[in-house]
Amino acid sequence: MNSAVAVRVPTILRTYTRGESDVTVSVGERATLADVVVALETAFPGIAGRVLDDTGQIRRFVNVYVDDDDVRFAAGLQTPTPDGTKVSVIPAVAGG
Amino acid sequence: MTVTLPVAGATPAPDMAGPDLGPATHLACRECGATTPLGPHYACTDCFGPLEVAYDFGQVSRERIEAGPPSIWRYRDLLPVPAGVADTPNTQPGCTRLVRADRLAGELGLATLWVKDDSANPTHSFKDRVVAVALAAARELGFTVLACPSTGNLANAVAAAAARAGIRSFVFVPQDLEQQKIVTTAVYDTTLVAVDGTYDDVNRLASELAGEHEDWAFVNVNVRPYYAEGSKTLGYEIVEQLGWRLPDQVVIPVASGAQLVKVDKAFRELAELGLVEGDAPRIFGAQAAGCSPVSAAFKAGHDVVRPVRPSTIAKSLAIGNPADGPYVLDVARRTGGAVDDVTDDEVVEGIRLLARTEGIFAETAGGVTVAVLAKLVRDGLLDPAAETVVFNTGDGLKTLDAVSPVVGPLGTIAATTDAFHALVPAVATR
Predict the structure, then answer these.
(1) May I ask the CATH architecture of the domain A3-91?
(2) How far apart are CA B304 and CA B325, in angstroms?
């Protein structure tokens, strides 16, 4: 059985999502954030390369939240994303 | 004077001629170098890196600056603002005092020390500088609303600047903010929203709202490249106030880190323009131990900053995920400086030391810089013989809770001389 994960897309990535600010992807029951990124790339080719760097890690200036938690405080790309999870991708260059 | 603003609800769209942002020419990514035209952009579309304002300064002279108004607008030729910026309603920040601090220097064993006291700005912190630049840029970029996430000082500055300019504002703060900063924001009739979370949570909310409300200028989010340039004026002023000389070393508080990075940029710009000579100052960053991700990275030799969950009385510095943290590390290492941190008890002692020796009442961030200054001297990291400038970026009246438990009247007495002499016998026997 698949899980539905909602993803909030920042303005600068909406060129990949045809202007949509909120999209939903379908992933496996035991999926992690890494699986969500793969699903996003399948639906919106090119988007993964904006979120991840050449080594496959989350870019230095990207914050990703799974529900309310910054994944840097959780398990990074291995953070579980069960059915109903909300993921937010946000540029990190803000504040102060 | 009235402000001509675009129709509310309009999507920011510079006219065909583009925004008039003075000497600014374009935006460039600090990470990958990709360029983008001047506009309401803050993150690189290629790598999410921060965008930085690039300039063609042309001819800038000391004389032209000195002939300018007694505010940050005397440096308008070095900022992303229109030439006529001083003529539009704004809070006219800047030109705060540089205080020769001989008594504090004596206490710490320093030869020459100055305090750049930015508590004298219109809303009593350095944030008036950055907000004034952000407002000027936001006007040119077609925004209709001013907004921000804030640890308090920025909240004051945005609310006041929007009131003065006659535009609507939204201010978002952590719900546990100092009461003084809540009152001194709300009084300007802004829409003040307290958020149940840390500053980093508030920042996240603001970033998401900025994506929903494209006519809102979140000064430190979607206008951040322009906003942050306002901190350069601290560096310009210090140099001008020293008689067009660079100090040897400076100690600057680090929250997001943007201020420290921009002061370094200011020193380098003045040198490149031939307006000042001498070696680049050594730049030191100051954090509270309860929120010291940049200090920790510096000490560990890392070039990335691992976010932390803040817990400190220095709430104006309580940013656990500092956007400019990596660049603070670059500046400190390049200039031969350092980044250090002090406990909350040391912060309180720093506030009291500055007050006792120089008659300057700093907010907690100022206590952090003074305490870090003392620590750097103790640890031999700062040259005691070199001319030093320490920053006080905010007014102690905003953070009374930090010192109210440890200062107060000696006692309460009847209105009689006997009662006074009983309380203060040394005076009675003099």
Answers:
(1) Roll (3.10)
(2) 8
